[in-house]
Write a structure and sequence with these properties.
With 44 residues, this protein is an all-alpha fold. It contains one helix and no strands. It has one helix spanning 2-40. The radius of gyration is 19 Å and the shape is rod-shaped.
């Protein structure tokens, strides 16, 4: 039974870490796209 709880804990920790990474990736991509749009979007 302790092994099951350890697996659940590790799985939840990994999920939380993945969500944090995904949030940072989204923010970075959004910032990069904003910079590109501001640089090239006005050359229509």
């Amino acid at each position: 039974m302790p092994a099951l709880y350890a697996k659940i804990f590790l799985s939840e920790s990994a999920n939380a870490a993945n969500l944090r990474r995904m949030t940072l990736d989204y923010k970075n991509i959004n910032q990069d796209l904003s910079l590109l749009y501001n640089e090239w979007g006005s050359y229509d």
